[in-house]
C-alpha cells in the first residue's frame, strides 16, 4: 500500500483533548507557493477533521491583485493538487472564512485594511480577537511586517492572543540571527514567536523521543560505551528546482544542516527530559548544542566537506549540473552537498563522532539516523569474513520506520552468520498515512504549544557552531566544483571525514536489501 492511499488517523480522541480557540490566521505571502502547496492543504485538513473550530478563518495578505473569490478558487486548486480530494460541502463551509487583501506588506497605511477585515471577522464569525500571523515571505520582509503589525496595534491584542510564525531562513549567520531575535523581541514576547522547522512536524521525528524514552531497552545502550558512531543523512534526488535565487545565497549548510539536521542531532543525543513539556524538552536540546566542540575556520578542512553536483543521471534520466540550472551563476561557489563531523563533549557522548550529511541530486531520496554499535568484544564466529556491527536505523522518510540489524545463524549444518533486520514500518503497523508536517505545527501554534518550534537560543547556538565553516567556505572558493556527479553519493572527500574503520552507509529502499550474506 502506498503512503498516499493509506487511511488517515482517527481523530476523535485528539479532538476531545486539543481544540484551539476560535482564531484568524493571517498569511503574509498568501499568493506564494508555500501557501498553496503546504499551508492551505494543511489547514483544510484540520478543518475537515474538526481539529479547528468551525469559525476558523484565514486572511490572505499579498501584493498580487485578487478578489476574495479568486483567492478561494486559487486555494481550492492548491488543496486539490497538493492535499487531496476536496469535498464540496466541506469546502464551502471552509471557504466562507477565507478573505484576501491585496496590499504591499511594507506599507504601514495598508494595515488599516487588515484591521478592518479582522474586526469584521470577529464580529461576523466570532473569532474572538485571536490571531496567528504566518510570515510566508522572504526574510527581508520579516521585520517590516512585524513593525507594521505593532504600529497598527495588532501585535498585542487585549483579552486575546496573537502569535507569529516565522519561516526559515532565520538569519544567514550568527550576527543576523541575533539581530532578528533582538528586533522581534521589541514587538513580540518570546512565547508569541514560533520559529518553524517543518522537520519537527514529521511523525517519524516526533517518534524519536518516544522510541528513546518510552522504551526501557534502548536507553541503557544509547551512549559512548556501546555506540561507535552516528550518521545522520538527508539525501534528496531533487535538484535546486525553481529556487535558484534563494539557494544560491543559502547552500546546503544553511538550508538543511543549520536547522533540520541539528534538530535531528539534538533529538538523537539529548538527555531524557524530566517532563515532556516545551520548556524542558527545548532546554535539553540546547544543552546538546552547548556541548558540541566549537569549530574554528582552520578546522573546517578536517571536519567539513562541501560538494556541488555536476551533470549526471537520476532514475535513468540525464540531468544538468548545478551550474547549468536556470538562475544559477555558471561559476557558482554554492555547495549543494555538505558533510560535517561533530563531537558532543559530555559524559554520554565523549569520543563518539556524529556525522551529518545533506545533499541534493544524490543517489536516493532518504532521510535517516543510523546509530552504529561497537562490535562484540570477542569474535567467536567471524571466520574469514567480517560480521557487520549492530545498527539501529530510524528511517525518517520515505518508507518510514525503524530497523535493527543483528547477526543470525544461517540455517544449515555449518555455523554461518549473516546480518538480518527486525523492521518496524509505519505503514504495516499503523495502516495509516502520516499527516502533513504543517498540520501538526499549525495546530500546535493555535494551541499555544511551542514544543515543536525552535527556541531563540537553539537558533543562535546553531549559527554560532556553523558560522566559522560558512566563513571559511566563503573566503576560500572551492577549487574542484563540481565535484560529484548527479545521482551519486556526493564527493569522494566525504569519506575522509570518517574515522578509521567507519564508512558512510548507502541507505537502501528497504534495509532488508542491505543485509549482506556472510558465509
Ligand atoms: C527545506 C529546504 O527546508 O527542506 C529544501 O529548503 C529541502 O531545500 C526541504 O528540499 C526538504 O524537506 P523534506 O521534508 O522534503 O525532507
What attributes characterize this protein structure?
519 residues; alpha/beta; Rossmann fold; Dihydrodipicolinate Reductase, domain 2; 2 domains; eight-stranded mixed sheet; six-stranded parallel sheet; 15 helices; 18 strands; 34% helix; binds 6-O-phosphono-beta-D-glucopyranose
What characteristic shape results from the CA principal axes? globular
Largest sheet: 8 strands, mixed
Name the ligand types: 6-O-phosphono-beta-D-glucopyranose
Share of β-strand residues:
15-25%
Count of distinct strands? 18
* CATH class division of the largest domain: Alpha Beta
Question: How would you summarize what this structure contains?
Answer:
34% of the residues lie in helices and 19% in strands. With 519 residues, it is an alpha/beta fold.
Task: Tell me what you see in this structure.
With 519 residues, the chain is an alpha/beta fold. The protein folds into two domains: 12-167, NAD(P)-binding Rossmann-like Domain (Rossmann fold), CATH 3.40.50.720; 200-381 and 456-497, Dihydrodipicolinate Reductase, domain 2. The protein has helices at 12-17, 33-48, 68-82, 88-95, 111-125, 142-151, 174-185, 203-213, 244-269, 278-291, 300-303, 426-430, 437-447, 456-475, 511-514, and strands spanning 24-28, 57-62, 98-102, 131-135, 162-166, 193-195, 227-235, 304-307, 309-310, 312-314, 317-319, 337-343, 353-359, 366-373, 391-397, 401-409, 417-425, 484-485. It has an eight-stranded mixed sheet with strand order 8-12-13-7-14-15-16-17. A hairpin with a 7-residue loop joins strand 16 (401-409) and strand 17. Helix 2 (33-48) packs across helix 13, helix 7 packs antiparallel against helix 14 and helix 9 (244-269) packs across helix 10. It is globular. The model is unreliable at 1-5, 8-16 and 512-519 (pLDDT under 50). Residues 236, 255, 367 line the site of 6-O-phosphono-beta-D-glucopyranose. The site of 6-O-phosphono-beta-D-glucopyranose has 3 residues, from loops.
Amino acid at each position: 500500500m502506498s503512503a498516499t492511499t493509506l487511511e488517515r488517523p482517527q481523530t476523535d480522541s485528539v479532538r476531545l483533548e486539543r481544540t484551539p480557540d476560535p482564531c484568524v490566521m493571517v498569511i503574509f505571502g498568501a499568493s506564494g507557493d508555500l501557501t498553496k502547496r503546504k499551508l492551505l492543504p494543511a489547514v483544510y485538513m484540520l478543518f475537515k477533521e474538526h481539529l479547528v473550530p468551525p469559525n476558523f478563518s484565514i486572511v490572505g495578505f499579498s501584493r498580487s491583485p485578487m478578489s476574495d473569490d479568486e483567492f478561494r478558487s486559487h486555494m481550492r486548486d492548491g488543496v486539490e493538487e497538493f492535499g487531496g480530494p476536496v469535498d464540496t460541502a466541506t469546502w464551502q463551509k471552509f471557504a466562507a472564512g477565507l478573505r484576501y487583501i491585496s496590499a504591499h506588506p511594507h506599507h504601514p497605511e495598508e494595515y488599516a485594511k487588515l484591521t478592518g477585515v479582522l474586526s469584521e471577522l470577529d464580529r461576523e464569525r466570532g473569532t474572538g480577537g485571536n490571531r496567528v500571523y504566518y510570515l510566508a515571505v522572504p526574510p527581508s520582509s520579516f521585520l517590516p511586517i512585524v513593525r507594521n503589525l505593532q504600529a497598527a496595534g495588532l501585535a498585542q491584542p487585549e483579552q486575546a492572543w496573537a502569535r507569529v510564525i516565522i519561516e526559515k531562513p532565520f538569519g544567514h549567520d550568527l550576527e543576523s540571527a541575533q539581530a532578528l531575535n533582538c528586533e522581534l523581541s521589541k514587538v513580540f514576547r518570546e512565547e508569541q514567536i514560533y520559529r518553524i522547522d517543518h522537520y519537527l512536524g514529521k511523525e517519524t521525528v516526533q517518534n524519536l523521543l518516544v522510541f528513546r524514552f518510552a522504551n526501557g531497552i534502548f536507553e541503557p545502550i544509547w551512549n559512548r560505551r556501546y555506540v561507535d558512531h552516528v550518521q545522520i543523512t538527508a539525501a534528496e534526488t531533487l535538484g535546486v528546482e525553481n529556487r535558484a535565487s534563494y539557494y544560491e545565497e543559502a547552500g546546503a549548510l544553511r538550508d538543511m544542516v543549520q536547522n533540520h539536521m541539528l534538530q535531528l542531532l539534538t533529538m538523537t543525543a539529548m538527555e531524557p527530559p524530566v517532563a515532556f513539556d516545551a520548556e524542558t524538552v527545548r532546554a535539553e536540546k540546547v544543552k546538546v548544542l552547548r556541548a558540541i566542540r566549537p569549530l574554528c575556520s582552520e578546522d573546517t578542512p578536517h571536519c567539513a566537506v562541501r560538494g556541488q553536483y555536476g551533470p549526471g543521471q537520476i532514475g535513468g534520466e540525464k540531468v544538468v549540473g548545478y551550474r547549468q540550472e536556470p538562475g544559477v551563476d555558471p561559476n557558482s561557489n554554492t555547495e549543494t552537498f555538505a558533510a560535517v563531523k561533530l563531537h558532543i563533549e559530555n559524559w554520554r557522548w565523549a569520543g563518539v563522532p556524529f556525522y551529518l550529511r545533506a545533499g541534493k541530486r544524490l543517489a536516493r531520496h532518504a532521510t535517516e539516523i543510523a546509530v552504529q554499535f561497537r562490535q562484540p568484544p570477542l569474535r567467536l564466529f567471524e571466520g574469514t569474513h567480517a560480521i557487520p556491527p549492530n545498527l539501529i536505523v530510524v528511517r525518517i522518510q520515505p518508507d518510514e520506520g525503524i530497523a535493527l540489524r543483528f547477526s543470525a545463524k544461517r540455517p544449515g549444518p555449518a555455523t554461518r552468520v549473516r546480518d538480518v533486520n527486525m523492521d518496524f514500518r509505519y505503514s504495516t503497523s499503523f495502516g495509516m498515512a502520516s499527516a502533513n508536517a504543517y498540520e501538526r505545527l499549525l495546530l500546535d501554534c493555535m494551541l499555544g504549544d511551542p514544543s515543536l518550534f525552535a527556541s531563540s537560543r537553539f537558533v543562535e547556538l546553531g549559527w554560532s557552531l556553523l558560522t566559522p565553516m560558512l566563513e571559511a567556505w566563503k573566503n576560500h572558493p572551492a577549487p574542484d566544483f563540481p565535484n560529484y556527479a548527479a545521482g551519486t553519493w556526493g564527493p569522494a572527500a566525504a569519506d575522509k571525514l570518517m574515522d578509521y574503520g567507519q564508512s558512510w552507509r548507502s541507505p537502501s529502499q528497504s534495509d532488508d536489501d542491505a543485509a549482506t550474506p556472510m558465509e
